[in-house]
Amino acid sequence: xxxxxxxxxxxxxxxxxxxxxxxxxxxxxxxxxxxxxxxxxxxxxxxxxxxxxxxxxxxxxxxxxxxxxxxxxxxxxxxxxxxxxxxxxxxxxxxxxxxxxxxxxxxxxxxxxxxxxxxxxxxxxxxxxxxxxxxxxxxxxxxxxxxxxxxxxxxxxxxxxxxxxxxxxxxxxxxxxxxxxxxxxxxxxxxxxxxxxxxxxxxxxxxxxxxxxxxxxxxxxxxxxxxxxxxxxxxxxxxxxxxxxxxxxxxxxxxxxxxxxxxxxxxxxxxxxxxxxxxxxxxxxxxxxxxxxxxxxxxxxxxxxxxxxxxxxxxxxxxxxxxxxxxxxxxxxxxxxxxxxxxxxxxxxxxxxxxxxxxxxxxxxxxxxxxxxxxxxxxxxxxxxxxxxxxxxxxxxxxxxxxxxxxxxxxxxxxxxxxxxxxxxxxxxxxxxxxxxxxxxxxxxxxxxxxxxxxxxxxxxxxxxxxxxxxxxxxxxxxxxxxxxxxxxxxxxxxxxxxxxxxxxxxxxxxxxxxxxxxxxxxxxxxxxxxxxxxxxxxxxxxxxxxxxxxxxxxxxxxxxxxxxxxxxxxx
Length: 572
Hints:
The chain is mainly beta.
C-alpha cells in the first residue's frame, strides 16, 4: 500500500518516493520456511478510537489468489499511518474469494460496516462492533456492489483506492516523515569574539530544513579579511562547507566500510571486479581523500589454505583499542561460507597485509563453529557496543534440511577474543515483509548507528539486484538487546531504488563519524539497473523523531544559493 496526500482537494502527490509503506507479512510453513504474501485493494478507514485501520485482500507473492485467504480479508491497525500492526485475517464468507473491500465506522449503529464483492461480482455486507477484536462478526448479507469515488493523481503505476481526511498534525507528520527534507535557510551568529583563526573555525552555521530539522555545518571563512594582530571589529565573508562525493566513489566495490584509526581513515569493501577473491584497503587523512587513494592488498584467496574465494563484506571494528576486520570467507564453495575475524598486531600498519592475523572462524560459546559447513552459512557479521556490552549480529542461512533464507541473529561476544560468542544466538529479524522477500528471502548486512538515546540497526533485504532495500530495527538506551521485545522493526524500507535517482538496489550500509562530528553513510548501489555494485557516501541526517534519513542528496542537503554567509568578528 502506498500513500499520497492532497492539500487542495484536486490532485494527490505521492509520499515516500512512491514506495510502499504497508506490506503483507509472509506466513510460515510447517517446515519453518516462509511463504511470501502480497496485498491488493487496500481500504483505509478511521476507527472509533480516533486511530486508523486498513483492510485489504491478501494474495500470493505475485498476485495470485491466496487459498488460505479464501473468504477472508487482511486487517491492520495504525495510530499514525507510519507503523502498522497486522491484526490478522477476518473471515467474511468461507466459500468464495473476496475481490474488493470497503469498511467504514457507522456511529449510529456503533460498529463497522464491511461491504465487499466476491470474484463473481456478487455484493455482500457484514457488521462488527469491534473490528480489531475480529469477534462477533455478523453473517454476510446480500448487498449492492459498491463503487469508490474517483481519486485524481498523476502517479506512476497508481491503482487508486479511497481517500480520507486527516488532522493537520497527522498530515504534517506524514509529510515530514515520508518526504526527503530540503534545505531552506542558513543561520550564523550575527557577531562573535575571537582571538585566532582556530576560534573562528569553531563557529558553525545552522542549516534549516523543510521538515523543521536542523544540521550544523562547517564554514570556510575568509581569514584574509581579518588582521589578527590588531584589535577591532571586522565583517568577514564565508562559504558553508560541503564535501562532494560523486556516485560511485568506487566502481565494483560492494558492502563498503569506512573507519577512523589512529588519526587516519580506512576504506575496505567486497571486490566484485575479481569475483570476490581479494580484499583491498585504502588509507587517507580525510574521508574525501579515500576516493582517490591508492589501494593495498590485505587478503586474497591464496594466502591461507582455509580461505578461498567469496571474500565478502569486510568491516572494521575497534574493540578495546584493538583494530579488527570481520569478514566472510570460504575454503572454496558457497555452502562453506563462514564469518571470520582478523586482528591487527600491536603497533601494526593497517595497510600491511603481514600485520594482520590469520582469519579466525567464529565459534559459539561451547567452542564449536558457528555454522555446520555445507548445511548453514554465516556472513555480514558486525559488532554492536551498547550499554557496556559487546554484541555480534550477523546473517545466517540454513540450507538443510530446508532452505530457510537468510535471517539476522545477535549474541554477546568476548571483547578480548571477539570471534567467540558468549551467549546463545537470538533471532533478530527474518525476511517476512514483502520488501524483504522479493525474489528471495534475505535479511543481511546489519550495521549499528548510535545516537544519545537510540540504537539503530540498519540491514539490507531481498536480492542483490535493483530490488535490494534497507530496513531498520530500533532499540532504546538501556534495553536488553537479546530480548526481541526490545526491538521495533519498521514496516517499510528506508532506502529503495526510488529513493535517489540513478542509484539502484541501495544497501549494506555502514557508518563513520568524521573529525567535525558529521556521520557519513557508506553504502553500495548500482549506477543503472544492471550496473555493477558500487560504493557511495552520503551524509546521515536525522528526521523529526531522530530517526536516520539516508536519502538526503547533496542538492537537498545544502542549497548552493544559500552557501555564502557573513559574520562580524571582534578580535581581542
